Automatic annotation (TrEMBL):
<dbReference type="Pfam" id="PF08492">
    <property type="entry name" value="SRP72"/>
</dbReference>
<keyword id="KW-0832">Ubl conjugation</keyword>
<dbReference type="InterPro" id="IPR013699">
    <property type="entry name" value="Signal_recog_part_SRP72_RNA-bd"/>
</dbReference>
<dbReference type="GO" id="GO:0006614">
    <property type="term" value="P:SRP-dependent cotranslational protein targeting to membrane"/>
</dbReference>
<feature type="repeat" description="TPR">
    <location>
        <begin position="227"/>
        <end position="260"/>
    </location>
</feature>
<dbReference type="GO" id="GO:0008312">
    <property type="term" value="F:7S RNA binding"/>
</dbReference>
<keyword id="KW-0802">TPR repeat</keyword>
<keyword id="KW-0677">Repeat</keyword>
<keyword id="KW-0175">Coiled coil</keyword>
<keyword id="KW-0687">Ribonucleoprotein</keyword>
<dbReference type="GO" id="GO:0043022">
    <property type="term" value="F:ribosome binding"/>
</dbReference>
<dbReference type="InterPro" id="IPR026270">
    <property type="entry name" value="SRP72"/>
</dbReference>
<dbReference type="InterPro" id="IPR011990">
    <property type="entry name" value="TPR-like_helical_dom_sf"/>
</dbReference>
<feature type="compositionally biased region" description="Basic residues">
    <location>
        <begin position="561"/>
        <end position="571"/>
    </location>
</feature>
<feature type="compositionally biased region" description="Basic and acidic residues">
    <location>
        <begin position="573"/>
        <end position="594"/>
    </location>
</feature>
<dbReference type="GO" id="GO:0005786">
    <property type="term" value="C:signal recognition particle, endoplasmic reticulum targeting"/>
</dbReference>
<dbReference type="Pfam" id="PF17004">
    <property type="entry name" value="SRP_TPR_like"/>
</dbReference>
Length: 678
């Protein structure tokens, strides 16, 4: 037995040497075989089990590694194997499980802290992630400092993009293209698109410099690495309205066939948003890229949500009503408070001409989610206007308490009520808005009553509206308030006097004393310059005649108009001055007193009595007559310039000569045949 044990120990020692050598060479597949042989000798060897898990992880077999850990829980305790277990769960996209494993570890090693930061980023807990990376950078000094700074900048960029947090200046030196790229993403989140584009151009330059130093890297490899930078450039172009440039760059990236499924999904989604309801066949092709395996693990929740929204809209644009309803209902169940799913459902119902049902759906959502009621009610009002129910639309708009006093809302309501000739309701809208501002300012100024520019503007608009619609009595109080605020306003005073002239003439006379005198209102105007100015309707003649030289000069300048000479009328060739002209020559022949009508029987022999195909007489074939007569159809190209408003019949529809008579004969024949048939 002792000999067997010694032989086993010697064999194990040889196998451990093999494992060590293979591990140093990076040959983990061969090392795994040796570890398995060691475990055959001693199945509960903790070190051998740890080595097996590491070899499986290095070979990418995360499921098998996790199975080994879970099978040997008694031997591989959390203290021994916590990092490897959490890493396997992280790589298998079991992020919540990885977080629990890390938090349950008795000792937080540097490796676990690094992994903890990655897990928090994937869970989109950016504040905690930022704190974790700051702690790591502060307490670590090794060759991975640049990677940690890159991750820190990525967290700040994510906060700026998804949480609209103003990013703080980390003071990082942007020496790598990754840091430049993350900085550009943060700027995009703030809406600083031009600055972001410059950062991306710098990132592209740094990337080319970094990769070109490696002789093994090809131009295709460089373009593949630049794909994500170019994708962000195209997104900026799209936000700036340069859709054609953005679309061209997006398609160039797709042609490269990058391996990053997340990048492809985002680009495909952006192309779909550019296409909208046009080029739907291209959108259908692109939507397949958003369904690739693993996309859900590469993108943030908001990105995935946006893609699903666009899928629902694409289904609506392609008339896939059931698919649209299914997708929007699924989105609503995932995010009950989100506006877009219910708006998509309402839009689909409107396409199906079910406007009442769409309004009911929106009303239910507004009742359930009062926080989002304003935007929903605006949509409801739009639907009512589309149906022609303007008064109902006004009622919906007036029910939005947080917007009813806004100048834009007041203007819209007054315009709509005026369209419906409901002047009383329009004035009521003005009154309520003015009262709201009066109460608000009184609460803000502790009893003082200064008028804000918006308040005064509403009062003026109300007064002008009342004056326009003949409500001068009602306009007086508004005008007095305006004049009280600015006694030097002559225009308001004039309006007030005009209004009082119909109600209280004596009051109007008293107020008219406040008008400035005519002397103070006189303006220094050069009458001669005004009369001679360009565009004046009357120009006074200058005294004296122009001399010959001056006249030629004035004619050269084109300032003096020439007198048009009256042309003598042309007389007819057979005009005889001795003969008195016919006094009825301007009347049509039929209206003249000596008109006796046409003589019957003349040229009777020339009337064709044969069949339709019979030949005509020789006189009708005279080329001189046909040349001078108007053509029955235009020559090639003669009808090309006919305008859309012209009454000229186009060449295709013009009837040939003699067609009406032929048609009439055919109709008569048909009638005869019909009678005979009966």
């Amino acid at each position: 037995k002792m000999a067997a044990a010694a032989a086993g120990a010697a064999a194990a020692a040889g196998l451990w040497s093999e494992v060590n050598r293979c591990g140093q060479n990076g040959d983990f597949a061969r090392a795994l075989k040796s570890v398995n042989k060691i475990l055959q000798i001693n199945k509960d060897d903790v070190t051998a089990l740890q080595c097996k898990v590491v070899c499986l992880i290095q070979n990418g077999n995360f499921k098998e590694a996790l199975a080994v850990i879970n099978t040997h829980t008694k031997v591989l305790t959390s203290d021994v194997i916590a990092f490897e277990k959490a890493y396997c769960e992280y790589r298998l996209n079991r992020i919540e499980s990885a977080l629990k494993t890390i938090q349950s570890a008795s000792q937080q090693t540097d490796k676990l802290k690094e992994l903890y930061g990655q897990v928090l980023y994937r869970l989109e807990r950016y504040d905690d992630c930022l704190a974790a990376y700051r702690d790591l950078i502060r307490n670590s000094q090794d060759e991975y400092e640049e990677e940690r700074k890159t991750n820190l900048s990525a967290v700040v960029a994510a906060q700026s993009t998804w949480e609209k947090v103003v990013p703080e200046d980390l003071g990082l030196r942007e020496a790598t293209y990754e840091l430049c790229y993350n900085s550009a993403c943060a700027l995009i989140g703030q809406g600083k698109l031009n600055e972001a584009m410059k950062k991306l151009q710098k990132a592209e330059e740094l990337c080319r410099q970094s990769l070109s130093e490696d002789s093994d890297v090809t131009e295709e490899d460089i373009e593949a690495e630049l794909a994500i930078i170019h994708g962000q450039m195209a997104y900026i172009m799209q936000l700036q309205g340069r859709t054609e440039d953005a679309l061209q760059l997006y398609n160039q990236i797709i042609k490269l066939k990058p391996t990053d499924v997340g990048l492809l999904a985002v680009i495909a989604n952006n192309i779909i948003t550019i296409n909208k309801d046009q080029n739907v066949f291209d959108s259908k092709k692109k939507v397949k890229l958003t369904n690739a395996e693993g996309v859900e693990h590469k993108l943030s929740k908001k990105q995935l949500q946006a893609i699903e929204f666009n899928k629902a809209l694409l289904a609506m644009y392609t008339n896939q009503a059931d698919q649209c309803r299914k997708l929007s209902a699924s989105l609503q169940s995932q995010s009950p408070e989100h506006l877009l799913p219910v708006l998509i459902q309402a839009a689909q119902l409107c396409r199906e001409k079910q406007h009442a049902k769409a309004v009911g759906l929106l009303q239910d959502f507004a009742d359930q989610h009062p926080a989002n009621a304003a935007e929903i009610k605006l949509t409801m009002a739009q639907l009512k206007i589309a149906q022609g129910s303007v008064t109902k639309a006004c009622m919906i708009l007036r029910s939005i308490e947080e917007l009813q006093h806004k100048p834009g809302m007041v203007s819209a309501l007054v315009t709509m009520y005026s369209h419906e000739e409901d002047i009383d309701s329009a004035i009521e809208v003005f009154t309520q808005a003015i009262q709201w501002y009066q109460q608000y300012q009184a609460s803000q100024t502790r009893g003082a009553n200064p008028k804000s520019p918006v308040h005064l503007s509403l009062i003026r608009e109300a007064a002008n509206f009342k004056l326009k619609h003949g409500r001068k009595k009602e306009a007086i109080s508004d005008l007095e308030e305006l004049w009280k605020q600015n006694p030097k306003d002559v225009h308001t005073l004039a309006q007030l006097i005009s209004a009082y002239s119909l109600v209280d003439p004596e009051k109007a006379k008293v107020l008219s004393k406040h008008l400035p005198s005519s002397d103070t209102m006189s303006l220094k105007v050069d009458v001669d310059a005004l009369e001679n100015s360009h565009g004046a309707t009357y120009v006074r003649k200058k005294a004296g005649k122009l001399t010959g030289d001056n006249q030629q000069k004035e004619q050269g300048q084109g300032e003096v108009k020439k007198k048009k000479k009256k042309k003598k009328g042309k007389l007819p060739k057979n005009y005889d001055p001795k003969v008195t002209p016919d006094p009825e020559r301007w009347l049509p022949m039929r209206e003249r007193s000596y008109y006796r009508g046409r003589k019957k029987g003349k040229k009777k022999d020339q009337v064709g009595k044969g069949t339709q195909g019979s030949t005509t007489t020789g006189s009708e074939l005279d080329a001189s007559r046909t040349a001078s007569s108007p053509p029955t159809s235009p020559r090639p190209g003669s009808g090309a310039a006919v305008s859309a408003t012209s009454n000229v019949i186009p060449p295709r529809h013009q009837k040939p000569a003699g067609a009406p008579a032929t048609k009439k004969k055919q109709q008569q024949k048909k009638k005869k045949g019909a009678k005979g048939g009966w």
